[in-house]
Amino acid sequence: MSGRKHWRTLIAGCGLIALVNALVLGGVAYNRSGEPDSLLRLSERELPPKNGRWLKFESGGMILTLAWRVLPAKGSDDFYGSWATIGGSPVWLDTQKMRSLGFEVTEPSTITPAAIRRQRSRDVLLVLEFDGPAYQQALNLARERYAEESRLLAANPGKQEFVRRRDDAQKRLQREETLNSRLFAVDAGLDAATLRAQYPDRTRYLIAKGRVYAQWHHDQSQPTLSGRIGRLAISEINIPVELQPTVAAHHPFNPTPPFQATIAIGQRLEPWLREIALGNEMR
Amino acid sequence: MTAASRPEAQRRVDDIRVFEREWQRLVDEGILQPDPAQEATLRSHHQALLADYAHAFDIDADLQAHQLSLGMRVASFLGALALAASVFFLFRRYWGALPTALQVGVLIASSLGSFVATIALRGRDRSGYFTKLAAMLAFVCFVLNVTLLGTIFNLTPSDNALLAWAALAFLLAYTCDLRLLLAAGILCVMAFIAARTGTWGGMYWLDFGERPENFLPAGVLFFLLPSLPPLAAHVPSREFAPIYRIFGLLALFLPMLVLANWGYGSYLEFDHRLIEGGYQIGGFVLAGLVIWLGARRGWPETVNTGLTFFVIFLYTKLFDWWWEAMPKYLFFLVLGLIAVLILLVLKRWRTAGGRLRENPR
To answer: How much is the ipTM here?
Structure first.
């Protein structure tokens, strides 16, 4: 390789590496500039450590996952079974909402297998509500369920089945009150400004990029469309080493100690951890 | 000396060795009685050429050197993989203990340092093996650089990263004559094109694999790329052009093979059985065209890829038709007979091709 070509290659390669790093770091700076789009104070209930461990050998540090939920339809089979899991199919993500998110919804009589196949997933913006009406609804439902099971046990004294059902309902209520995430997906849209105007409280509602999948129900005479929320575009939040000592020193390998963390969502709707401190939640 | 790269010089050296052996055979059989002065001139020219190549490119001068060189190539490849894995796990092991600014500094420094080291080594390493090892390490460092920045700052995954990786892979591949990095660059660009095609179709970019047709535009592009007049001059034809064509064909045939058996994955709004039938026929037709084009242009890798997929499409179809209906011994007998038939057709084709070369119009 001639000397001139040698230098040209060197400059091109170093320039490429420098440019890519500058673009990435510039994007980070822009995201964190100005007032955050939202600023939420969450706890270990909404931010469980990745894989349930606070620290792992050869894990590359500490990572928190954003745990969010949906409220399925009352009476649906999974209402009491999986409502505390991450993600799912909320009631509000119906045919009309799917149309507003860009999915093609034709008249039932004109739906063809090809039209069903065509639509899979779309990028959307999700509104996540923290400790708001959706959580209260979840809490009330757990209380109602416990009250109902207690009433049934009182009507059937000594029957083991009703004792077990009451105990299960009690455990679920306790989990709902103390462990389950209070972050609920309550709406979706395509425009951040419109959603923010609709949900102006930046300490209760965060807007995040996510994905919605089409799902077709064939239980009626014509297939009907509804949506399922998949993963958020960013569901893991890194704990910088500067913020780790306060938590790592106390619980190096323990499963999830109680903590309070402030999560900011920036201009590009990318989150970062602002503060984290061990301690019981302040309600 | 006219060779521009080590592979070119090696090919010339191999040609000289073959020429010398045949020359000696003809002289021994008395068919050739060369003028001693002319023979001496020829030998001295070849000796000078070999000495030049040995000095400039560290070529394999004999069979033993050639065999050792193969071993070095394998060692270089395995060494690069092991070093890349070592860098990856080193980063993982100590990553959580470094402050953010230091993490960023280490990532950028490792990318820049490994790239500069590769270029510096390029000027000193005549054999090229150490340069290739360093080049692969530089590529891995850059991939880790971008990926880990995404993790540190919780960035939204972006398909633009594929373009950045491809750019460095192509730069290193062309600088170090490294086919493995060329393949890495091609795969990155293919994934980018497929992701963008999927995005235009309304899907999330990371789901691009759900629609095999997303890969077809990239397949066409890479198959044609070495033959496009403005770009052909930049593709070292004997080394890199076959890689472009093979990956282009893979990006065409593999999606067609998937869709020939799973019509639900198509963008086309027809019944899935019609789509599967269409892609089955399309696969046969394309394989036939590719074999014809490869034979006509003298592209052996194109012929072989076309032939391989022709057989795969054929056997898949035969499996669908007869696996359940036939006794197994009969099914495999039919496969064997078809293989014999393909051999006969190719033999006939080869003979016809030979006659055509002997008696060109």
So the answer is: 0.84
